[in-house]
Amino acid sequence: MRLIHLLPLVPLVAAAPSRPIGDTVPELAVEEWASVQSGFFGSIAKWNKVADWTWGKAEQVIDNLEQEYEGEGYGDGEEELTIWQQLNADPNSFSKLVKIIKFEEKAIKYLDDKDSQITFFAPNNDALTPPKHHHHGDDHDAALFELAKNPSLTSISALLDSPAFIAALDERHDHGHGHHGDHGDHDHDDKKKKEIIKYIIGKVLQYHGLTKAYTAQEIAENSTIPTALKADDGSYGGLHRRIKVEKQLLPPAVKLNFYAKVLTSDKKARNGYLHTLDHPLIPPGSIFESAYLLPDFYSTLTSAVQHLHGQHYLDWQYDREHSEPGKPKFHGTGLATLFAPTNVAFGLLPPELKFYLFSPFGSRALKKIIAYHYIPDTLLLTELLVDNRKHDHKHHDKSEVNVESVQFFDEPTFHKEFDIHPALPNSTLHIEVAKVKVLPVEGATKFTLKVNGQSAIAVDAPARNGAFHAIGKLLVPPHHHHDEHGEDISSIDSYENWEQWLPAWANEA
Predict the structure, then answer these.
(1) Where does 322-466 have alpha helices with state H?
(2) Residues of the chain whose pLDDT is less than 70?
(3) For residues 276 and 279, what is the distance between their CA atoms, to the nearest angstrom?
(4) Do 205 and 127 lie in a common domain?
(5) How far, in Å, CA of 43 to CA of 34, rounded?
(6) What percent helix, strand, coil does the chain show, rounded to 5?
(7) Residue 17 sits in which domain range?
(8) Between helices 295-307 and 32-40, what is the axis angle to 10°?
(9) 212, 246, 277: which is the final residue of a domain?
């Protein structure tokens, strides 16, 4: 396999947690989430396409630096060390991660910067020990191809632990100079392979960092938190990609992106905080990819989207055909939020309605129902609202969100209500987001989201091109339905009496 065949894979990142996740302890989210959480992300076998990021230097925020130098934390040995120095000083825990960072090289400057204040999530050696897998022997192109499909820090660690692979790269690069023909081609290709590997590592490492110094307590105060990895491929509104944060009170614990548990927290370093993880973090895929990789929860939803040939509304993919060297192109929807009905939600529909929706006669109705569940050009999280839509809003109600706006809901507690337009024309969704205290202790808060009065059973699931929230019932779209006396009774309609209103609604312009 020639290197040219691998180049289209450079912007792609697909990975999975290194081991199946064990039993989880229910946390402070709504009760229904406990039954979903145990397998929500643990079953993922492949993960995700990531944008064309460069490492760069993340935003530096220095809080009270002079006080730090005057002795508030320095003088206690380890706290005088940078994050990079602490990782090097603990080979029993981080030798695999250190090997990855040294190979990539550029991250060292970021992690060793004494004048910055950052956070770094460090998977330990156990987290980076891969399960037994098929070995490719001397087929280095095949090994790189596998890495391009599955470049988590775990798979990267396994590759760097392969003496044959690294020796081949180093030997050809060191001894191939001055040769012509096949040897010269091999030398050039192997050098490019090494650059590609470093490029992938840099992006994944950046997703493990935060641009400010956060304790575990401060992290747990959020439902999501921005990483050092910024989207510049046209997706996610150009924002820093975020990590989902979950917390449980007894025993105290913080979990990231549903599967990575913080094992050791608040290890103070000269330039911030170091937290140890039991799984490496994985930049997420698009909304559609994420749902597709969770068939136990979303197979009916993804089947509906595919039935309608509507993947592009929820997907963001590398466009191989129209990309040029150094100028990658992407297609799909760069930013969206989905209220994702689970398989259980579809299972609550009358059987006749399900047959109708997935028949040729019901496609129009199915398309309009799905359109009512997603919001294009918008990132809606429980703490953040980004609306990038451009449309005439002269007659919009003041309770509706402003276009091209970013709103942070960052009060200690809050309750916000507003209307927002989904993809279904001439319709609105009523949104309620809240952060409430559940116990009179610091950090004992819960984030909730309601859409049209229905509570989401899982909120703020991150995606490459936005986010999705799991709901247990399909939303009933707005429509007109009158009784024999001419009274509008649409407010009491449900999918149980769908024959009385849904076919007529589906055929409306």
Answers:
(1) 343-347, 351-357, 363-371
(2) 1-76, 132-151, 164-190, 390-405, 440-443
(3) 9
(4) yes
(5) 16
(6) 35, 20, 45
(7) 3-277
(8) 80
(9) 277
Contact 389, 402 (CB under 8 A): no
Q: How many Cα atoms are found within 13 Å in the side-chain-facing hemisphere of 233?
A: 31
Q: Which two tokens stand for residue 210?
A: 């935060």
**Which pLDDT belongs to residue 142?**
60
- Number of domains observed in the structure of the chain: 2
Distances (CA, A) of 59 to 6, 212, 351: 32, 8, 53
Q: Which residue in this structure is represented by tokens 């909304």?
A: 287
Check which CATH number belongs to the domain holding 160 and give it. 2.30.180.10
- Cα separations in angstroms, 16 against 199, 257, 285: 19, 12, 11
Alpha-carbon gap, residue 35 to 457, rounded angstroms: 10
For residues 463 and 290, is the Cβ–Cβ distance under 8 A? yes
Decide if 205 contacts 108 (C-beta within 8 A).
Answer: no
Q: Do residues 400 and 428 lie in contact, with contact meaning Cβ atoms separated by under 8 Å?
A: yes
pLDDT of 484 reads 75
